[in-house]
Each structure stands twice: as C-alpha cells, then as structure tokens.
Amino acid sequence: MTTHAPRTPAPPRGIRLTAPPDTALPAGFTVELAADTHRSKDGRLVLGGSPLRLLRLTAPAARRLDGGRLTVTDPASGVLARRLLDTGIAHPRPAPVPVADTTVVIPVRDRADQLDRLLTALRADPPTSRLPVLVVDDGSADPAALARVARVHDAELLTHPRNLGPAAARNTGLRHARTPYVAFCDSDVVPEPGWLALLLAQFTDPAVALAAPRVVALPVSAPGLLDRYEEKRSPLDMGDREGPVVPVSALSYVPSATVVVRRCAVGAGFDEDMRVGEDVDLCMRLHEAGWRLRYVPAARVGHRHRTDLRGWLAQRAGYGTSAADLALRHPGQVPPLYAAPWSLAACALLLRGRPLPAAAAAALTAVTAVRVARRMPDADNPPRAGALLSLAALRGTAEQLLRCATRHHWPVAVTAAVASRRVRRVLIVAAVAEGLADHRRSGSSLSPLAHAAIRRLDDLAYGWGVWLGAARRRTTAPLRPRLALRLVSRWTAGERP
Questions:
Q1: Is it the case that residue 493 has pLDDT exceeding 70?
Q2: How far apart are CA 351 and CA 402, in angstroms?
Q3: Which of 42, 71, 196, 235 sits 20 to 30 Å CA-CA off 428?
Q4: How confident is the model at residue 497 (pLDDT cuts 50, 70, 90)?
C-alpha cells in the first residue's frame, strides 16, 4: 500500500524532550561490572567508566557485588545498580525478550536494490519476518521501483513528493508507527540474525530510550584501500566495547544507520532542520532529558561503506559541517578537546623540548599524582594509583592535542608550520606518529604508511567541514576546547550498614 504522507511542521530547533516517568530498575534486573573496572582488595573502591569515575561503596554494597554481578532485589540494590550503570562501571545483563511491539521504519531515496536486500534479510529472519515495516520514499526519482519492492515484501510505503532529508523521512515513519518501539534502519544496512532481540532487551530498563547495534562493514570481493580503511575506521562503527551513550565520553553518540527507540521518549523525533548530525542531536537531547541510551555491539548490522574517493571525502566534510550546529544547540558537549588545565600546561612545557620546561612538566604531574592519591586513601596503593591516573591523563591530553593539530585545528597548525621550521618538524612528526599509532590500535590490514596517509585525508576533510560549518554559522563554538576541572569524579553509593 502506498500512502502520500501528509506534511506536518518540523519540530522546532532544540526541542526539549520530556523526562522518563520512571527510572527505577525492576526486580530481577542484573548488572555486571565492566571488564576494565578496577576494584580495591576489599571491594569498596571501584574505578571505571567514561569519563573516569571513582565509586566508594559501603560495606553492604560491596558485598552485594561479590562475584562482579548484582541483581536488583529491593530499592537499595536498585539504586546501586542504577549508579553502576549510569557511570559505565557496570553493564546491563537483561533477560531475553520476545521480538514484538516494534515497527521497522526505512527511510530511502531510490536505492531499490538495497531496499530489496534489507527487506529480504528482515523477512528471512524469523523474529523480524512478521513485523510491520514502513518504507518512507523521500522524493525518489523512480518511485515505482521502490513501490514494487515494498509490495513484494508486504511493506507499507509512505511517500514524500520531494526530498526532505533523512530526519524528515524517519519522522514520517515515526508518526505512522503504532507500536511502543520503532527500529530505524537505513536502506543500505543488512541486519545480522538476532540483532533486534538483543536491542529490545535493553528496554526492560524503563529509563532506556534508545539502543543501537554495532555497524560493521559488509564483505567486499575485491577490497580497495578505502574499503580496508573503512573496515576498521568507519565513523559508523563505534567499536566492540558496550556502554552507555553519554556526551563528552568515549561513546558520545551512536549513528542512526540503525537504532531502536522507545516511541514515547523521542517526542517528534529528529530535528528536520539538520541534514547531517541529526542523530547526534537526538542522542544529546535524550540525555539532557534524563533518558539512558545503550550501545550493544553484540547486536550487529552490516553496512556498505562509501569508498569512492570523491564521495568519501565529501561525506567526511559533511560530517564536519554538523559540528557547528551541534555546538550551538548543545554548548560544551562537542568540544574538540576536553582536558585538565594542568595536563595542557604540562604538554605545552614538554613541547618546548628543553630540560627545564620538562622538569616543570614532571613537577606538575607529580603534584597532581599526590592530590589524586590523597583522594584515594583507601586504595590498595594510593601513591601508585595517583601516579598511574595522572600519567594516563597526561597521555590522553597529548593524544587529544595531536588529534586537534591534525583534525579540527589543522588550518591553524599548517599556518604555524609555514611560519616556523620547528613547528613544521613537530607537525610532520606528529602526523606520522599519530597515524602509525592508530594503525597499530585498529589492527588495519593496510600497510602502516598507507593507513597513516588515508587517516590524514580523513582528518583534513573532516576538519575542513568543521571550519566551513563554523564560518557559515559565524561561530567558533566547535573549535573551542573545554577544560576538565577534575581528573576523577568521585561518587559515594550503597546503603548504610
């Protein structure tokens, strides 16, 4: 069935969403400490999450976590489990749920062959084979081809007479959905079997508004250089580590290539004023309203990444242009650099390359280590913990500065390099070193130099987009760093003995 979707006004910019009516975890809900969480020997000091959190537990709370798992049995354990989840120190381990009460919404413009591939995969997977599917034709040049594909797979077709953008197409599907949950799937993805059940299980937490799978590269028979780079460094692939989606963290957003949402949480949906970055904006608005968002890499969808050089560069630059709009809508939430003043000062001193400034940088780091150790007197080895955390922060700031010089702020870095031979040498060394380090981290199948060269192209295109977007909006917001006033945030959780 084909329906011409009635046009309704787009949601206003920065529209606020309502808070979740209930955030209490239900009885029987289980959480498990993340693999990278550190506990003291007595179990009362817990360190982990992103940004890094220090959680000090009461003795009864520590006993509840014996074995690294906690199941909610009463209000006190529910409060503790919620704190562990929200800090990223623990991850949910919900019970399996049936795949039901979900509408699949597919925004598409032409790409009839890709739509057919996606619908074939959905109908072939038993849990999703009978779900209602809404295909939203967003102004295709050949609407008849999409109509034929939708008819073959028993999907309802909604049409926009002209192209309105992916946000508007998703919102049209959202308005027509009648189920509690909506799964948005772009037409160029292919879900792997079992993907939806893993995501729907996250919604047994009443505060979860959105859950997203990992987006991995579809196999290519004869992969080129960009195919092999995208296999490891696609901006759609958020990696293999699960966690909460929180601004200014290691997992600050998830892409809308495939996401499942609680329909009552997302309101009018995506901001239709945004042609790029609308998914990041929705994540941030949900977080600001108090909803929780989860990334579940165990659920996977394949995606055919863009790998023609011209289109690839244009895509990266397009992503960069969204930074200005996001920075204006969400001040301080998309900084190019987020670091403590002391670590920035220490890095600046080390860049001088002379003994006296290096000694001053070491002194700054030592003072910070002492201060951190004093905040952790009950750690197994406070001096060692303070030193390790301070050195990790210094390294993290150095890596961010490298990324800024080669990504967000490369026009400034290049200008300085033209004027100074010393800056030029430092920039060349930094660009090569960062690329080689990323090659090692990512496990890329490319040669180290090829990977480093493509990574620099990636950064040049994205950075150009950031500056272009900033110029259009007449703002420096996406270029301004944000200072972290604490190395480790401290929380206290548990119940009184």
A1: no
A2: 12
A3: 235
A4: very low
Strands 38-39 and 45-48 turn out to be antiparallel
Q: Which residue type does 153 have?
A: H
Q: What is the amino acid identity at position 221?
A: S
Structure tokens at 469: 């977007």
pLDDT at 492 over 70: no
pLDDT at 10: 44
Sign of CA dihedral 165, 465, 335, 396: positive
Nearest CA among 132, 106, 102 for reference residue 195: 102
pLDDT tens track for 161-186 = 999 999 999 999 999 999 999 999 99
Q: Is residue 6 predicted with pLDDT exceeding 60? A: no
* Confidence grade of residue 50 (pLDDT, cut at 50, 70, 90): confident
Segment 382-393 shows an average pLDDT of: 92
Burial 448-476 (b: 16+ CB within 10 A, else e): eebbbbbbbebbbbbbbbbbbbbeebeee
The type of residue at 5 is: A
d(CA 132, CA 57): 46
**Res 229: pLDDT:** 96
Q: Please compute the mean of the pLDDT values over residues 291-309 and round it to a whole number.
A: 95
Cα separation, 76 vs 165, in Å, equals: 46
Mapped onto helix, strand or coil, the DSSP state of residue 319 is helix
Rounded CA-CA distance 386/374 in Å is 8
Element holding 55 (H helix, E strand): strand 53-57
Report yes or no: 490 and 56 within 8 Å, Cβ to Cβ: yes
| Counts for the chain of helices (H) and strands (E), in that order | 15, 19
Pairing of the two strands 338-339 and 482-483: parallel
pLDDT of residue 15: 72
Residues 6+ positions from 476 with CB-CB distance below 8 Å = 470
For every residue of 227-280, DSSP letters joined together read HHHHHHH-TT---S--EE--SSSSS----TTEEEEETTTSTT-S-TT-SSSHHH
**Region at 428 (left for phi over 0; alpha for psi -120 to 50; beta for the rest):** alpha
Q: Which two tokens stand for residue 445?
A: 């199948």
Q: Is 16 exposed, middle or buried (0-12, 13-18, 19+ CB in 10 A)?
A: exposed
Query: What is the Cα–Cα distance from 141 to 162, expressed in whole angstroms?
Result: 9
Helix (H, G, I), strand (E, B) or coil at 313: helix
Across the chain, what does the average pLDDT equal? 92
Which string of b and e fits 126-164 if b means at least 16 CB within 10 Å? ebbeebebbbbbbbbeebebbbebbeebebbbbbbeeeb
